[in-house]
Amino acid sequence: MFNGFSHSVMGASHEKTGLVCQDSSAFKIGNGYAIAVVADGHGSKKHFRSHLGSKFAVEATIEAIDRFYEEREDLEANLPVNYKLIIKNIEKQIISNWNIRIEKHLEENPVTAEEKSKFKPEEFEAIPPESYYGSTLVAAVAGDGYTFGLQIGDGSLVAIFEDGKAVMPMEYNESAPANVTASICNSNAASMFSSFYAPNKRLIALFGSTDGLYTSFGSEFDFLDYHSIITSQLINLESFKQIIINNLTKRSHYGTEDDISLSCIYDEDLLNEKIGLLNKQVEDNKQRAAQRKAELLKKQVT
Question: DSSP readout, 245-273?
Answer without folding.
Answer: HHHHHHHTTSTT---EEEEEEEEHHHHHH
